[in-house]
Amino acid sequence: MASLNLNQDQQALLQNIASLYDSLSTLPSLLPSPQVNSLFTELVTACIPPSEIDVSKLDMEAQEMRLKLIDLCSNGEGLLENHYSDILASYENPLDHLSLFPYYTNYLKLSQLEFELLSQHVNGMPMRVAFIGSGPLPLSLLVLATYHMTTTRFHGYDREPSATIRARKLLKSDADMASRVEFRTADVMSLTHVLSSYDVVFLAALVGIDKEEKARVVEHLNRYMAVGSVLVVRSAHGARGFLYPVVGSDELKGFEVASIYHPQDEVINSVIVAKKLPSVHAHVHLPGEVAPVQGGLPLRTCCCCEREAIMVSGCKMEELAREELQS
């Protein structure tokens, strides 16, 4: 497989990834096994090193392979999470054993980065947070709720009933977490007025795999999220775009992008933090409806200016430096 506008190293990377795709796509099952685990590990290892490859500029054949590969990764990740969620649920206190998941350290790092990023752009602790696409093993939500947002209420949404059932079992022996965390079965497109009650909404990387579907999800969130609330979008950069969908800041219509992080280590996902702007779709609250909870969450109003790169916890951040408007 070849693609235009790629240098020799990028062509070699593309060939390697295409070969791994061929191997994964011919497996009878993606259930966790030594062979499956080995192939996915090899794929991730190939995609982690910093690369200037722009997956949006690949030729049609490579683009089709990439989308199919992301779908395979999504299926494999789901099966892996099912497997470990069931293992954890077999313990009397599941949350005491989260480190059994092989990539748990990555989630600790990613959640730390996301919390640091939110702390730079919001004032105070979020009162209500939603995770869209929380999955059967909602590690990011659980880590944030346990270590960073210890008084916040969390709602995890997933369209698969089996994912909701598994996630709920993880809370069975922790009264505090069970009182603050709730998992619900729902497709994001079915969520309307409830979205306006959240201070922060996290959008999982695999909610909306292709560009058009992701755009529909973002437009829906823009229609119903409260003005001033914060959207955290997980994306990918460089060769990591073969593992997860890439979301550009220009695709977040109706949101003002505050920061973009591109990790340089084993944390795969880039993180975009954006503020919901007023729009023609602003929701009018009906009598008796829950009003937006925005306590302590105003992002700095900006008129901007300058882009600078800084390092935060080993993660490169592309920061939109803002000047606060004088009141």
Automatic annotation (TrEMBL):
MF terms per GO, please? Answer: nicotianamine synthase activity
> Per UniProt, which keywords does this protein have?
S-adenosyl-L-methionine, Transferase
What's this protein's name?
Nicotianamine synthase
* One Pfam family here: NAS
Q: What class of enzyme is it?
A: transferase
Catalyzed reactions: 3 S-adenosyl-L-methionine = nicotianamine + 3 S-methyl-5'-thioadenosine + 3 H(+)
Query: Which Enzyme Commission number(s) are listed?
Result: 2.5.1.43
| Gene Ontology biological process terms in this record | nicotianamine biosynthetic process
**Domain of life from the UniProt record:** Eukaryota
* SUPFAM superfamilies associated with the record: S-adenosyl-L-methionine-dependent methyltransferases
Recorded family membership: Belongs to the nicotianamine synthase (NAS)-like family.
Function, please?
Synthesizes nicotianamine, a polyamine which serves as a sensor for the physiological iron status within the plant, and/or might be involved in the transport of iron.
